[in-house]
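Re: export button greyed out
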Amino acid sequence: MSGSPTIRDVAKRAGVAVSTASLALNGKPQVSQQTRLRVLQAAEDLDYSPHAAAKNLADGRTRTIGLVNPTTVEHLFTSSGFFMRLIRGMHRAATEEGYSVSLHIADSEEEAKAAIRAAVRTRSADGFVITNPTVSSSYLRDFKRHRAPVVFIGRPVEDAVYVDNDNVEVSRVGVRHLIECGHRRIAFLNGPEQFTFCHDRLLGYRTALEEAGLPYDQGLVWRSEQTAEAAYEVVRAGLAEHRFSALFAVSGIQAVGAVRAFRDSGLAVPDDVSVVCVDDTELTRYSIPPLTAVALHENWLGYWAVKLLLHAIKMQTATYPVLLPGELVIRGSTAPSRERVTEVSGRRG
Amino acid sequence: MSGSPTIRDVAKRAGVAVSTASLALNGKPQVSQQTRLRVLQAAEDLDYSPHAAAKNLADGRTRTIGLVNPTTVEHLFTSSGFFMRLIRGMHRAATEEGYSVSLHIADSEEEAKAAIRAAVRTRSADGFVITNPTVSSSYLRDFKRHRAPVVFIGRPVEDAVYVDNDNVEVSRVGVRHLIECGHRRIAFLNGPEQFTFCHDRLLGYRTALEEAGLPYDQGLVWRSEQTAEAAYEVVRAGLAEHRFSALFAVSGIQAVGAVRAFRDSGLAVPDDVSVVCVDDTELTRYSIPPLTAVALHENWLGYWAVKLLLHAIKMQTATYPVLLPGELVIRGSTAPSRERVTEVSGRRG
DNA sequence: CCTCTTTGTCGAAACGGTTCGACTAAGTCG
DNA sequence: CGACTTAGTCGAACCGTTTCGACAAAGAGG
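Workaround output, generated via the alternate export path:
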């Protein structure tokens, strides 16, 4: 009488058994065209929609995926739009297949594990996407035990299905641009080593140098936390001890700090030193000068993570990692080297 | 045998009926201390946790709240950390009371309504938080029909429970700071009028002027989309026609455009013109000069939205709007007016 | 000592779906 | 025409919990 209509109401109105109504509503083949139509019409008339929890209970599928976000890279998630773009991509992939996304945010590793554990045990999601897999090992156990598929965003230290930017390529492309501008002594501003993306980007830097026949100088590889202030200090220190005409930074916020360090040292960007960084955000786009950057497509990261996850959920089988390319966006922080201008052939696309 | 333990397993192991086990596990008073302990111990032994969907089906509570985000203010949500901060606050409030958050993102008004409708009808959330209530009326109907409590983030055009920044106060505080710096002709760079926050901030601007006995000059109130480029154009145009020594912008990104316009017109910030904006983000903090801003606390917006929502869910009763104060953060874009320095008494907190 | 409450426990009936095995009425085949 | 498949439908069981009404035992009041 009062509440929403149930499948029983629909069945009654269509003059069929409940089971038949269920079959018809779910498009199962064994119902005759005629009954199917009657049932569908009845459902329409009653403005019926199935109760999510009841479905879940009956067939064991929650049609929900959990996004687990241990917020270890504070800056990345709270400041830039990274997270939002990720989420939008995830959400799109999920809705495409009738799934919804639920959140599990945690401020510490412990909290994240507790959240995951709870979610897995109450069977409130069919699978999980986990960002920031700095310490992935401990997670995996719980998932395996409960047969919950997992996809990581960002390459985890150990074997697991994941989606990530092709970080080697990302920095390779950026550094190559600098080389093509004629720079020969290129500093590399890295982030904390425990992140695989930092490791990979360093590799891309070395690769680019190697390909160009340039020497790899340990002294030009610096490391700082992912903040403008930390980057500033490191670059000031580097300036005092080394000569170079360009810098590649693994994050936009670090690049901002670097640019400030140059400015405070009386060096103009790009006239005296060129800068390329990863991530083309408002922060880098509207800094002065606008920074040439390798843009990442986080929405696609999220999208593919969910696609992979859903595949795993349905097929009960593991899948392969997916690597996404970055895209060089040439803005105002790079210029031909003044020291020695060689062929400059950067594709301005 | 195979699956996770159910409450039946727990009951059996504790030697009680299923119903008693349920009572004990949920801390209901009518179980004896002794049985309660036996049940709890059994649950512990079996590593039991209740099946979320089953609970939901039985008692009708999903213990989930839906976050609906019609992404109409593109910039706000995809670029700044706004959304992430909001989410973290929401998540915190939700987990505090054993709730989880599920996402419903939409790229258009229509899509958002469809998403909401589906969520409401499948009874997959106990209530909803809706951001960007530009066109709220159409939403409300669906919710009311299904008795789903809703809290808006941002003041909607029509009556409803909501949480918002105290936008009048936000700009009042910022403008007052400029006035205290001695500025008498202060331009106001507004956003699209259909947003209530723009309306309210303009009001705050007028209030501040009035309180200081300064005239309100229509010609100094400009309007642009929420992008740096749009702001740039509007400010260039304004510069050509009006004299002023300070500007208040309703968003950080617009302020960035304005600063650029000043620079390109040969005006130094803050020496020639002071700038204050709303929202103290990386973008404004690391621009040159760092912008004096009124910081908003989006995490608290999210937090209180959920608190209010949960209150409404539990008490079955409507609640009152909550307004959050902003906080003036003095950075490098404001300086005493050169024209006529009056008492400068800004609280540098 | 008998009745009336209180306390603790229990079985059974929801909640709203899906799925499985059984059944009937048509075809199909030889 | 009888035996065998097949298509379509149905009733019942099940998913894992909560909740309600019944009930026995114990304690209180007269």
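Confidence is low (pLDDT under 50) at residues 340-349 of chain B. The button fix ships in the next patch.
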